[in-house]
Design a protein that fits this description.
The chain has 2 domains: 121 residues, no CATH class; 196 residues, no CATH class. The protein is elongated. The chain has a 3-stranded mixed sheet, covered by helices on one side. A two-stranded antiparallel sheet has the order 1-5. It is mainly alpha-helical.
Length: 326
Amino acid sequence: MSVQSRQNLLNRIRIKKDLEKLTIEAFARHSNADEIVSQIAELSDAQQQFIYKWAELISASNHELGAQFVSLAPKALTKMRDTTVQQWLDLVLQNFDNHGLGAAIAELENIDGFMEKAKIKEVQCSFSETSGFLQHFIRGLGGRDLKISSDLDTFTNTEALFLPEAVDLFPAPQENFTLYKLTAVHLWAQTWYGTWQHQILEAFKDTYDSSDHIEIFNRLECIRLDACIARDFPGLNRELQQFQLHDSDSVELWDSWRANSIELQEPNATAADSLKLIEKFSDIKLPPLQAYQGGNLFRSNSPDILFKSRAREGCAAKGAGENTRR
């Protein structure tokens, strides 16, 4: 046996004895103990010390749980950063304290699920991280304060912008942040460029009543709003272009819709023009919405509910005017 081989053997023996001691002999009963020790021996000194530290800490609560951690530690430390591993172990101990050994071991063994969630969390843009910035950013676009809130759906009621709790569509955090911002911009554009004007809601309510009409109106307004943003905010338009769908089918559909709605891209176009075109597009395939365009234009609210809301605003404004004249 060479000197190096002897040294490696002695190192593995030392590691095994250390772990058996830290887990109160529980690790000695593990069926793959020797294989796990060999994996730990390949880790850095800092990573080995990390395992020792947490094996002792977890074993103080339950030595079987400590041994189970040791068996998964090499995989965890080669797949995740130390801080992420610590979050995983914090969750394991919370489960032990609140639900017992079975729940804690189940959380340990769900390491792949935890890693997937951790990976998403590392790249996602969350409402809590972004809402403060968006509040100021949106005010800067038009000078009007709009409340920024989170919701399961993405929509606006003209007084607030409702955004998802988090966005993780892309592998890079900056891309997800930009998408989150552009989603807010699209909702703001609906309020600023008149998608929800009282007369528009009234006309829609009186003329259309199906979800198909809503979907067509949504696409037509997307075309008009994108054109408005392109004229008024060239920088934002460049970002919007980067986040549009680039597969050939989607591009072809959107190009066809734009070619057949040239009037919506004129500076004087309004939401009323989108309404007038609904019938023209009633038998044409819908293009898929861009990532920043949300999903449901009216959310779970019907046009009738929004109509009543805007009617109340109109009555309030009228009453205020009459009080002023008095």
